[in-house]
Fold these 2 entries.
Entry 1:
Amino acid sequence: MTKPMASDGTVGKALEVLDAVAAFERPVRFTELLEAVPFPKATLYRFLQTLTNQKMLSYDAKDGTYSMGVRLLRLAHASWRTASLAPIARPFLRQLSDTVGEAVHLAQIDNGQVIFVDKLIATDRFDTLAQIGQVAPAYCTGVGKAMLAFMAPRRLELALRQQAYLPYTPTTHRSPDSLLRELETVRRDGLAFDREEHEQGIVSIAAPVLSTNGRVIGAISIATTTARHDLNGLQAFRSVLQTTAEQIGAEATSWQFPA
């Protein structure tokens, strides 16, 4: 399920084990983890014991399974409050969601990948794949393209090399060349669209969140289904979306996201 990664000593290896447990998205048995990580049985057992003792993992003796621990939840909550744009943006996102009646996403980017840091759902008639804490590709998401378009040249070059260009749907970009052509349009219009590129039947309109000096610090999107809106219909949201992005950017100007 996971592939071996370069480890930074013992800490790096322990983090690989945490990543492996998280990747299952369910309680996982020792034998399953043994197949997922590049460690001998004794080494894996030692890491699991340590992580459990430190409450980074939780062990269910009855089922013999490991899951993410309560300490990670506390750390995640602290990160959300101090290293995420979400707390600053939440009041603006709530107002936007109430206004448009659709799903609203807030994302940031790290190592070329989109991280969804907040989400508000105004209707229970549909949902999107994006969930808080989930990582998604930048090249085939509205928020991802909105952020890529406003990156500094060197940062953009690196981010483009980190894209996989897997064809999730028939409309997904399959090369950096076609993506770059679209990014020029996004930069000119200040808006990006997801044309069912990551998830069939889901479209979105997205805008970058920029600091007052023009640095991209995130992006917001309004996502919906093709049964509710087509791409032309999403244009009706452009003004309120861009206004919300500008409000968040202004509020966050003094706040610095780790580079």
Entry 2:
Amino acid sequence: MNKIGITAAAFLTTVIITGVSTSTVKAASTGGDYTSNGYVDFAEGDNSGISPVDPLDPTTPVGPTNPDGSTPDPGTGGALSIDFASSLSFGTQSISSNDATYFAHAQWISKDKNGNAVDITRPNYVQVTDTRGTWDGWTLTVSEASQFENAAGEALTGAELTFSNGYTEGTTSAVPSFVNTGTYVISTSATKILGAGQNEGMGTWVYGLGGNADYQENGGAHLSNTAVSTASPISLKVIAGTNKSTSYSTQLNWSLTNAPGN
């Protein structure tokens, strides 16, 4: 009896083990599905390190130079920024007995993207960057701080600074829907020149005035703050009898607001 019992127990154990082994093989052969996750988090940018770009190719950084040979001031920084705006020079003009119109030089580029010295000109321009990530849109305007004045505070009465042939180029497909392409006089009242609506204007954008062919630079005139240019999309009309033999200047105020501008 003891032997039979032990034999039966041994046989039963063998059957149970074999059954478990067979069941495990079947489960593994059926495969299965499993999910895992990927994560990315974005925060608004800081445009303090944004360089001016080529207004004809905004993906390429360049080194613009002011008409007097100085380096432009840094941009405003922040996630919605004005990175650069051209300063304008109309050279040293001879006083005329008639009303006269003078033309601004093109923007001088003195360094390429690698910091190497170059000597090229580009349209005058202003550059903005939006890395907020809100897609709220923005508006860019320009105005004169005051009429052109000399060191004694005497105004160039009746003078008109005029812009024309505006265009925009950028680094994304979110093109601003408002671009001031007409001819307009800059005054102490703000003039809207570029506007991005909702879901527009993300990335870096330039607002340029004309193309290279619209500027006439006589023999490297851009290299001298006193030389004269004979054609430009930017002009200054002066009324006869209002100017003395001295220098006149004004400031251009470029304003970028985080309100949709389409």
